[in-house]
Write a structure and sequence with these properties.
Helix 3 links the parallel strand 4 and strand 5. Helix 2 packs across helix 3 and helix 7 packs across helix 8. The protein is globular. It has a domain of 192 residues: Rossmann fold, CATH 3.40.50. The chain is built from eight helices and eleven strands. Bound molecules: zinc ion. This is Methyltransferase type 11.
């Protein structure tokens, strides 16, 4: 694999010529290389990857909503709880909400299930995901520009997949209604388990993740996009399902074990204040 040692940080634009980190692929036995930004500490892939070809073979949902009913119900409960903590606290029931990069639409469904009546979803595929509720409006990522302004735009585990995040975020900032907010959740470059699991840390999710952001990097990216940082917090998304599947354990077993590991993961992450994901809330800077 060719390495681009001149790659710049997707967050702050500085060179990613710092420490190199290797990550195991989640699709085959290969591995990739991330470089560390010398300014903000974010990481970005240095390998030259054809992302259009990569995503043409795959939708963006890690876990399709099928199979074991208990696991599906647990996932839906988790997403509902996440939607409550992410959206319900700040948005009125009539708020117009966009789930940008919705994958199979499970998180859009969770938002709608809380009583929000104006929920939109978009992703790369033109066809509406089969698992998306019929009450959620869907469009392809290009057409979303024609759906007007939004009070809330959610990008949950999306930004790390986008090769050039700045122009996308700038365009989305133009679709914010007055007082509107963009809510972003991404893997945390300071995660405790990044240190503990090494090249098998699921936050790398190589080759699908281009970036692993730091809090400082996300703030710099917001600044470059004309957005103000309203809040930065950390949260814990379960990681052991992907980790165990990387060890060759079957998906159903890996997901079941992940549920048992999750409380311990949360305790360790919170004790060290190095949780799995960063949440950042952005608002437009009005002149
Ligand atoms: Zn940077």
């Amino acid at each position: 694999m060719n390495i681009n040692t001149n790659a710049n940080c997707g967050a702050c634009g500085a060179p990613c010529s710092g420490e190199q980190t290797h990550a195991n692929s989640v699709v085959d036995q290969s591995s990739g290389t991330f470089g560390t930004c010398i300014s903000c500490g974010s990481l970005r892939v240095l390998d030259k990857i054809d992302y259009n070809a990569l995503y043409s073979k795959r939708d963006s949902s890690n876990y399709p909503s099928a199979g074991n009913t208990i696991l599906v119900n647990l996932k839906q409960w988790y997403l509902r709880r996440t939607a409550k903590s992410l959206v319900e606290l700040i948005a009125s029931p009539s708020a117009k909400i966009l789930d940008y990069g919705c994958g199979g639409g499970e998180f859009s469904n969770a938002i709608h299930s809380l009583g929000f009546t104006s929920v939109y979803a978009c992703d790369m595929q033109l066809d509406r995901p089969q698992t998306l509720s019929s009450d959620v409006q869907y469009s392809g990522i290009v057409d979303i520009a024609n759906t007007g302004l939004f009070d809330i735009i959610v990008m949950r585990h999306v930004l790390e997949h986008i090769e050039y995040p700045q122009p996308i975020l700038q365009r989305l900032a133009c679709q914010l209604a007055p007082g509107g907010q963009i809510l972003i959740e991404v893997p945390n470059s300071r995660s405790l388990f990044r240190k503990l699991l090494g090249s098998r840390w699921p936050g790398y999710f190589y080759p699908f993740h281009v970036h692993v952001f730091s809090e400082q990097g996300l703030s710099a990216l917001a600044n470059r996009c004309g957005l103000a940082v309203k809040a930065v917090t950390q949260c814990n998304s379960p990681i052991f399902g992907v980790f165990l599947m990387g060890l060759g354990i079957k998906r159903t077993y890996a997901r079941t074990l992940s549920i048992f590991f999750y409380p311990g993961q949360c305790i360790l992450n919170q004790l060290t204040n190095r949780q799995e994901a960063i949440r950042i809330t952005l608002q437009k800077r009005w002149p």
